Amino acid sequence: MYIYIHGFNSAPASIKAQQLHARLTALGRGDEFACPALSHWPREAMHQLEALIDGHDPSSVTLVGSSLGGFYATWLAEHHGCRAVLVNPAIDPHVGLEAYLGPQRNLYTGAAYELTRDHLTQMSTYHVPTPTRLERYYLMVTTGDEVLDYRIAAAKYAGARQLVVQGSDHGFAEFEQYLDSVLAFGDEPGPTRRL
């Protein structure tokens, strides 16, 4: 099972989510894909994701988290034993998003809401200072990320499988070119699937 976890103000309609679903569908595995429309409230978003994981053997689940989704995927991987592919992941969004407090609008759905300190407080409860079992992670970052410094993620997940793409941007327009490596990682058998 592949669960795509979209980023801040994103949605299941995001390009990377659609690309992953299309690749799995082309392989006759479209039913192995899920991408929930996450609540903007972190606690509710985490409940949505945990409900999906609870329906499967966590060892058969690969999370693919983009930006804020990578932050959520790390906590879930640590607490449920899933594998996690982190695409330009946010490292400390409970700090970085302070600059965005106030009115927000989802880029895909147009839904409006207010980003408050309560959001950041909830987010902070899912912060994993030091990930364990680094073989559980596959980090994908771009050096041209204009939102997040890829070097911070590379340092935090040092020892994990890493792909560093020169240039590009936070949206990682070349993601589709690397889907085979995502699926190879998620499909890999072995002891890394156990807690």
| Radius of gyration over C-alpha positions, nearest whole angstrom | 15 Å
Distance between the termini: 17 Å
CATH architecture call? 3-Layer(aba) Sandwich
Number of strands: 8
Mean pLDDT: 91
The biggest sheet amounts to:
6 strands, parallel
Q: What is the number of helices? A: 7
Q: How much strand content do the residues show?
A: 15-25%
Q: Name the CATH superfamily assignment.
A: Alpha/Beta hydrolase fold, catalytic domain
Give unreliable regions as ranges. Answer: 191-195
* Tally of structural domains: 1
Series of H and E elements: EHEHEHEHEEHEHEH
- Helical proportion, percent range: 25-40%
Structural class: alpha/beta
CATH first level: Alpha Beta
CATH level-3 fold name: Rossmann fold
Strands ordered across the widest β-sheet = 2-1-3-4-7-8
The coarse overall form would be globular
Short description:
The protein is α/β, with parallel strands linked by helices and 195 residues long. Helix content is 34%, strand content 18%.
List descriptors:
195 residues, alpha/beta, Rossmann fold, two-stranded antiparallel ribbon, disordered C terminus
